[in-house]
Amino acid sequence: MEAKICKMDEIKIIAVKCVHENLASIALDAWKEALEKAYSIPGWINRKLRYGVFPESDHIGPTKVYTYWVGIEVDSFVVIPEGMEALTLPAREYAVVRCQGPGEQIYQAYRYLDQWIEDNGYERDPQALGFERYDKQRQKEIRPELYDYDIYKPIRSARSEE
Question: In this structure, is residue 81 part of a structural domain?
C-alpha cells in the first residue's frame, strides 16, 4: 500500500443515508436504492464513479453506531429524490490510499492510512467527512469478492506542542 496527499475541489453528492451498528448488514440495500434513484437525477457528473461518505469522527474513539451515505456526484442539487440527502464536501486536502483485495483488506487499509497520516505530520479532522470512491472500471460489482477503491480521509497539519 502507498498513501499520498490529494487536494480535492468541492464535491456535491446526493446519497442514501445508513445508520447502524453493523453497516455491512444494510449498506448493500442502500447502494441498490441509491443506484436505482440515481438515473433520475439530472447533473450526474460521472456515471462510472460512486461515493461512500462517512464522518471522520466515526473512525476516532469508541463509536457504536456508524453513519454512511452512498451516492453519486452531481453538479447541483436541483433534484433530490425522496429518501436521499444532499451533501457538500468542501475543497480540502485528503490522505488517500487504494484498498485492493478481499474484505479483510478494508480494515487493514484504514489502519494503514491512519498510521501514515500520523507518521507524516498530519492529523485526521474529526469535524469533516471522508469518503470512499468507487470506479466502475476498477470495481464492477457493489459487493465483490475482491475490492478495489480509494479511501479519502480528511486531514490537517498536526498542531505543534508548546
Answer: yes
